[in-house]
Amino acid sequence: MKGSRSVVTGGAGFIGSNLVDHLVKIGHKVIVLDNFVSGKKTNLTHHKKKDVKIIRTDISKSKNLDKYFKRVDYVFHLAGLVEITPSIKNPKKYFNTNVIGTLNVVEAAKREGVKKLIYAASCSCYGSPKNFPTSENEKIDIQHPYGLTKFLGEELVLKYATIFNMPNISFRFFNVYGPRQNILGQYSAVFGSFLRQKRANKPLTIVGDGKQTRDFIHVEDLTNAFIKAAKSSLVNKIYNLGSGKEISINKIANLFGGKKTFIPKRPREPQRSLANISKIKKDINWKPTITIQEGIKRLLNN
Questions:
Q1: Residue numbers in the chain where pLDDT is lower than 50
Q2: Which residues contact 291 (CB under 8 A, 6 or more apart)?
């Protein structure tokens, strides 16, 4: 893969910039497409211009993405809007970014004949699943516009793989955490909120009773899976991307340390989340290596 060219949409964001780091480390030239709504230039300033080319563009509005995909080997499509509550307030905005934007990316990748396109989907398509750990065969149970738009994006990616024989893969992310996580904003994920509160010496805000569990995967484990899947011959597949372990929000708060405060539960929030990751472990010989204790220690020492 050394000497390959990759496009990372949303490459200035939390997960995208970590993936860019990994790609540069293994010798890729990277083109980042980002509209900088949530991505930050500072996430990429440590890279040399010859390694990473940054282009400000909105994938949902740009009709001519082809010029950025010329002679590109791999496309990692991470650009998208990711919060649940804002998606209920503004579904059209989410549809434009997550569905139309994905269509534009897939079309450009198809025309340029890339070696592999990997799409960042979401475990939110399972809604409140009946079975744990939850496998890729679980019934789809969409509960909000965010989940719907990410699932429609996935359907596009996989239908293009079938109809046009494209080398596409979809990863359903569980709860990703790690360096450069967004800690600002009303809806930042639990790790972002806890980090912000810890740094400000404030109590950690726990939604509900804190007994709800989540499957957290460190971003470094996640980017390893991206590289392995890109190198593989696998196409037209869906994979869960989680740690395969569940942990309560109370336990996370204990690992962070400090005082806690409890606030009312949010509507449509699932009680449990746990990925069955046996399929990806078997197919690409990948497994997560960073424990939640180690991951939180790294975050607090960062």
A1: none
A2: none
The residue among 281, 297, 271, 293 whose CA lies nearest residue 225 is 281
What does DSSP say about strands 213-214 and 247-248: parallel, antiparallel, or unpaired?
A: antiparallel
| Catalytic annotation, pick one of 68, 74, 94, 146 | 146
* Cα–Cα dist 12/18, whole Å: 9
What SS3 class is residue 98?
helix
Distance between CA atoms of residues 257 and 259, nearest Å: 7
Distance (Å, rounded) from C-alpha 274 to C-alpha 289? 17
Q: What is the largest CA-CA distance in the chain?
A: 55
Q: Tens of pLDDT along 2-15?
A: 899 999 999 999 99
- The CA R_g of the chain, rounded to the nearest whole Å, is 18
**Domain 5-178+217-244+274-289, CATH homologous superfamily name and number:** NAD(P)-binding Rossmann-like Domain (3.40.50.720)
Structural tokens at position 53 = 């080319």
Asked whether the bond before 133 is cis by omega within 30 degrees of 0, the reply is yes
Q: Per-residue pLDDT tens for 66-86?
A: 999 999 999 999 999 999 889
pLDDT digits (tens, 9 = 90+) for 235-284: 999 999 999 999 999 999 999 999 999 999 877 778 999 999 999 999 99
For 200, list phi and psi in degrees, rounded to 5: -90, 5
Q: Which pair of tokens denotes residue 227?
A: 């590289």
Q: What DSSP designation does 126 have?
A: G
Please, which residues have CB within 8 angstroms of residue 159's CB and are 6 or more apart in sequence?
Answer: none
Active site residue 146: yes
